[in-house]
Amino acid sequence: MIETRSIETRARVLSVSGGKVWVEATSQQGCAACHSQSSCSVSGLGKFFSRNKPPVALSCDLPVRPGEELVLNMSEADLLRAGLLGYVLPTVLAVAGAVAASLFKLGDAAAVASMAAGFVAGLAVARGFSRAPRIAVSQPAAFQQTHFPIIPIKETPHD
Predict the structure, then answer these.
(1) Do residues 93 and 121 make contact, with C-beta atoms less than 8 angstroms apart?
(2) Which of 8, 120, 132, 122 is nearest to 82 (CA)?
(3) 51 three-state secondary structure
(4) pTM over 0.70, yes/no
(5) What is the rounded distance in angstroms from the CA atom of residue 95 to the CA atom of residue 108?
(6) Tens-place pLDDT, residues 76-95
(7) Which residues pair with 138 in a beta bridge?
């Protein structure tokens, strides 16, 4: 049996309508969770790009209300597929276009045009093969206080 890994995050419900919930991420991840963010210049980029994230609409049949927290789960395979299709494929086709134009000695302008054509073709192929990732929505497990019995340890004399 193959073990499937998943990526999990928490999100806060903003609104509910027609079987859909609008959510925004609530947990701190990446730079926001790092203890070195005050002295790290990369965290400034994280703060810049994390501003004004639009809410995401998800199908949900759970009885939730605005303000509640949900757990969102997505398989690593879906994320890897999206990354390969969205980033790697257009880049590889762009480089292949430029290399092909250079091999045929078509000149710099043709190499740039071939690179742009390869990039656009990669985006078109990625769009054609893309599909919406499957995101599982669940409610977080309720905090349950577990009582462990305290068992006294009796010392026994050594023989």
Answers:
(1) yes
(2) 132
(3) coil
(4) no
(5) 13
(6) 888 888 889 999 999 999 99
(7) 71
